[in-house]
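Q: What structure does this chain adopt?
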Amino acid sequence: MSEVSVTNVANELPDGSFQSAEQAVDWIVNLVKFGMRPGLKRMEKLMELLGNPERRLKFIHVAGTNGKGSVCAYLTEVLTQSGYDVGTFTSPYIEKYTDRIRYNGQNIADDDLLRVVNKIKPLVDQIASSELGQPTMFEVSTAAAIEYYARVAYPDFVVWETGLGGRLDSTNIVSPILTVITNVGHDHMDVLGDTLAKVAGEKAAIIKSGVPVVSAVAQPEVIETVERRAAEQHSTLYLMNRQFRIESVASMENDQTFHFSGPYRNIRDVGITMNGSHQLENAAVALMAIELLRQYYALIVEDDVLMQAMKATKWAGRLEMISGQPRILIDGAHNPEGGAALARTLRETYRYDKLHFMMGMLATKNHSGYLRHILPLVNTLILTEPDWHKKEDASRLADLSKSILNELGRSDVDVIVEPGWKTALERLQSITGQDDLAVVSGTLYLIGDVRSWILHQSDSEKGW
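A:
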């Protein structure tokens, strides 16, 4: 693989430019105050001013409610282990801003980020002073990633995750070589629409003319929506349980095996270490995508490398055991479908005497749908708050939880309200016995903080 050659740009900066990557990141993150402003006009203008660098790259565009990050991780691992240079753009990041822009599994270097941001900032300011208005944090981040990949790193492929939705998401500025829609569930419905069909329509809008689509959507109305968009765009749809399918062979903690059946061939005894039956689906979606890249773009992936890469794939913050004594599992489930997958995995995969559950949410989520999957399992529930401006009040979560527990006839669950997440974490650690399991779940803003604190004794950075 090629090494990225980076010159020292510190002495090249014009007056008024950022002098450090930290300054550049602070500027980008502070754009959060402008909120989300769906639409592509600002991105189109920014790309035009940059000379349309997005046209130089081969994107694999990944959308969906859950599983996007895991599919991106599988694709990245297989491609890099096969000798290709790969850019990976994901969001939100877990610990550091630079997590979101990666090249061959490594975060963008500070010098590269500084150079890219100093190039785009005057253009962002120019757009901000026009009738288009201020570009958002996610738009600037997306533009920075495109500029970095197109003019600094030069990857063979870019694994490109949507932020929110698809149709008006800033990542939809690109024309991909392959489209992936993992699934559609009840999330961001305040923005994307109040029915699954409407949400599916927003996500399916990343399907471009003639570009093949891989998907694991399951609900009839969602399948119909995705099929219609694919037909309109003359794009071939490869749908799980139609064109490809899986058969689970064995499932233990950190070790699952399945058979994959596809339109071109069958692959037996694929092993993965990520937990949960939903990860079998994510892995199968990634395998189907790899198979299409082999067919359409002559991708070279040896079977032994494929098997090795699938087994080696990990994804931070998704059913990740970050402490052994006491056992603490973190998982970024934050919507009803994520809660269902987490609950199913806790039942089927993990062994414990008592389950102590700590959670924090953003105010915009479907808390009731999530809690109805989780509460039947817990012995202790600790409600806390993420360090983020859209956080849900812990006491409100407690009231809702108590109401649902009452419906379930469970008076044996200890419900604790502790808004400070570090204090809540200390409480969780103190009550978790040797044979118990502690779980921290909810918004990734909380997951990122807890992960960073336990592993590095430091706070994570923040931003969408």
